[in-house]
What does this fold into?
Amino acid sequence: MSKKLTSRAEDYSKWYNELVVKADLAENSAVRGCMVIKPYGYAIWEKIQAELDRMFKETGHQNAYFPLFVPKSLFEAEEKNAEGFAKECAVVTHYRLQNDPNKEGKLRVDPEAKLEEELVVRPTSEAIIWNTYKGWIQSYRDLPLLINQWANVVRWEMRTRLFLRTAEFLWQEGHTAHETKQEAITEAKLMNNVYATFVENFMAIPVIQGVKSESERFAGADETYCIEALMQDGKALQAGTSHFLGQNFAKAFDVKFTSKEGKQDYVWATSWGVSTRLMGALIMTHSDDKGLVLPPNLAPFQVVIVPIYKTEEQLNEITTIVNSILSDLRSVNISVKFDNRTTYRPGAKFAQHELQGVPLRVAIGPKDLENGTVELARRDNLTKEVISLNDLTNRVQGLMIEIQETLFDKARTYRDEHITEVNSFDEFKRVLDVKGGFLSAHWDGTIETEDKIKEITKATIRCLPLEYKEESGVCVYSGKPSKRRVLFAKAY
Amino acid sequence: MSKKLTSRAEDYSKWYNELVVKADLAENSAVRGCMVIKPYGYAIWEKIQAELDRMFKETGHQNAYFPLFVPKSLFEAEEKNAEGFAKECAVVTHYRLQNDPNKEGKLRVDPEAKLEEELVVRPTSEAIIWNTYKGWIQSYRDLPLLINQWANVVRWEMRTRLFLRTAEFLWQEGHTAHETKQEAITEAKLMNNVYATFVENFMAIPVIQGVKSESERFAGADETYCIEALMQDGKALQAGTSHFLGQNFAKAFDVKFTSKEGKQDYVWATSWGVSTRLMGALIMTHSDDKGLVLPPNLAPFQVVIVPIYKTEEQLNEITTIVNSILSDLRSVNISVKFDNRTTYRPGAKFAQHELQGVPLRVAIGPKDLENGTVELARRDNLTKEVISLNDLTNRVQGLMIEIQETLFDKARTYRDEHITEVNSFDEFKRVLDVKGGFLSAHWDGTIETEDKIKEITKATIRCLPLEYKEESGVCVYSGKPSKRRVLFAKAY
It folds into this structure.
């Protein structure tokens, strides 16, 4: 193993970057801002995908696939959306390379192969999808149209960080069409709720559901619902968004339907997405100075078994026992790996599995053979226990639930302790500086105030929580009246 | 439903294009050569993915994800590969759009945002992946490296057809690295065999395994293994390829490893892929003039139940029975849909499910209620039977296997009847013209002859089958001596 991880206290940002690479989750590639997702990281993403996909289908959605490219003329059709993404678009202008006549063995773009119309690499797919929906929707019988796409998208970011902000990322994007405004709003809320349920139950990350302020809204949306999480350094992370798009895209692409009553109207739309950014949230919520900590629901393998032996004979004995453990655990759907590599010593294996966040380690050595025991080591709280082999399956099943819950509870406690009500701008700045986290504050509802606060403190409105109490107060910045608190934070 | 499908006899190509669209599998998009895969088509692709993914993992492979873009300088590193794909590369040259100063509300490429180095949208990922492997492989302990990627790729084709040849398509690409030449060859053969097993057992499409002639080899490969299928119009379709890449990419990207003995050597490589093209093979192998025919293993739903009723009361009675059928069938893992839409009549539903190839239709009407029966209609051979409700689960289970086998047997019989041994060039041309299919012929092994035959007949060498008998003969074209027959055909 390579040298020790930088600690969070020392340099949180460095800790994160090192952890992602050392735990074999991802690395930077030769392409500016684009990452390689390594097998171990991708296995976690596959678990995220599988569960979300199940939840989407359970709520009536179907998957489809739309083109990677968006012709410029379609891209610009919904003006706000186009304006919001124009500055970060990768653009295909040519469709052929040729031998470079000036450089032996090199290629150059063939100047003859210029596209008549440039193609934007999708930063999001509303434009290409709504242009397609135009052909799919004629009558109320075609509605609701409930579609999801798993895809890669590209947003040319100047400052990138593995998983959190990359030029190319993987995501899913739902795009739905409805007869009525109310139905579309219900859908947008439903999917935000699906995200919240998934992120809390599966990723063990507590989130706050809310709506965005106007200036933080998705370009082209009438309302953006979101789930906001809090990282260990006190910064917030937007983990998912679900947009009520009104009739904006239907109007831009002329998508009308005939109602039961024979009336023509534009359809109502939503879109919603989560991305590989969730991997960043996962890492930053649970991990510690020893490396990654994974909730059992998302671990590529939940249990690793490491044999400790000196002789071939001991290894054989251990292997016999492990084979029976493997089949017992697998029969109750525990994913388990027997790390019987002969090229690494137990110490190196322990270090690697700790770094990679395997929830539970089982070690079996010569003493265990004598006593009919095994040693369990929990990754989350680093405790160890020796138990009878007979109790193993039950104990492991129980621990999977316990670890999952412990991680969530710990994260929720931290998060709850870091929501601070502040009632003056001085307090706002001080708490932000000293403690971080979410600041629950009155705000006068104007973009001007929001901008000023951002300019001065770098904190933004993360959301107007869906759950709140009406409360008369005055804006922390302007002193103007306000009827509710909103959540500010510095954010990823 | 829209008007009748063109028949295969009338215009095979038109039949295919219409079928893909009418059965709701895919359609052309606003982007030249790029398709939209519709939910029903995508659901079939998901079944293909799930089973292949399972088989890849069972053979020790892990998934990962590499960037969409390949910097031009990396792309050109392996010269043969670069030369092979240069003419069909979409190229990103800019990373920003801006408001067009000459056209209100329009965007244009920002001339200030030109990339220093152009980015090729991956037509295949050897270059970016081998550049990454350089950092992953140091010693024999890092080998074999067995990785697969599910991704979209872009090859700028001038003449495109839904699924068969599209500018963007979805695929998986395996990329492995090995210590020895023999191990890499074994891997390439193994994966070709995985493809053959999958395509035969799951897609019910018989294939011939073989190797490509030098001129049909993948650009950058030392050997290309392939599986070749035969469509109903007598044209062959390459359904998958698996390449032994020698040390070509290891040398181009300087990927060496230290062996157990401490020696340094370049690693040996394979790559292998199948794509959404398989959808085209599926459609063209089994479907008929009434529409799509799906093998039960790949059908989004294997059984559809259509209620036939006049009164609300009848529908309620039928629904009670259907609910119990649904739970019985699902308990034995049959996927089933109850088509209780009130917006369509039974006749329209029958037509739609026939067009969409649902393997088995169950109809329940008032008479069935009286008699305790249901009517089954098989999509593959269009036969019907009335059976007792009590026998339904057993019968459906049996039919799923029977239909799967029947489809495979039918396709294999057709394929076997269309492999013709030809012994002269006249016979070659006549059989190709009149009967089509594979021509098993002696060939002198030269590219010149291969080119000449292609020029004259449009037939190419599909493969040198792995299973063959040594046999002295003379080349059908040149009359020069030959030791074995190879398979020629016109191909997609």
Observations:
- The longest helix of chain B spans residues 392-417.
- Chain B has a mean pLDDT of 97.
- Chain B touches chain A through 66 residues (CB under 8 Å).
- Chain B has three domains: 12-286, 303-399, 419-489.
